[in-house]
Amino acid sequence: xxxxxxxxxxxxxxxxxxxxxxxxxxxxxxxxxxxxxxxxxxxxxxxxxxxxxxxxxxxxxxxxxxxxxxxxxxxxxxxxxxxxxxxxxxxxxxxxxxxxxxxxxxxxxxxxxxxxxxxxxxxxxxxxxxxxxxxxxxxxxxxxxxxxxxxxxxxxxxxxxxxxxxxxxxxxxxxxxxxxxxxxxxxxxxxxxxxx
Length: 196
Description:
The chain has a two-stranded antiparallel sheet with strand order 1-2. The protein is 72% helix and 3% strand. With 196 residues, it is mostly helical.
């Protein structure tokens, strides 16, 4: 939560958003109830934290129709735009620490980020967050491609290729070509060669 609050502070958001960022996981982790948040921090903070909790329960699965459908659900659940700001900052923090997750989780999270969170950041005009989310997502995909490239290189290095055999084949092919060409050449009385 502290990292999320720090990301939001860089955006110069209001103090309520910072407080909500610090508390955004409290309901999900069972550390507190909405009623306790109302008593301690007021209706506004409790409402935002509760909205985040509802969104966190929304599972992003491939079984759902599309990323645009999920974006509509998220925006619909967000009664306050600050909820979206906090979710985007939370996703940015998750992407910054993605390397500590399992490879399959990295792939899923990077895909969700590109298809789901990046368009929301763009719609909200949060271009700095959008750019970093895109960069981190693409880096994750590129790392997977680099891993694949390394496997190919290992295969090629472990495949025994006899370059001398290849060179001798090329030389033999050239000699065969010249031999056939000589067979098709007729010598004239003048001493010059002419091809049939």
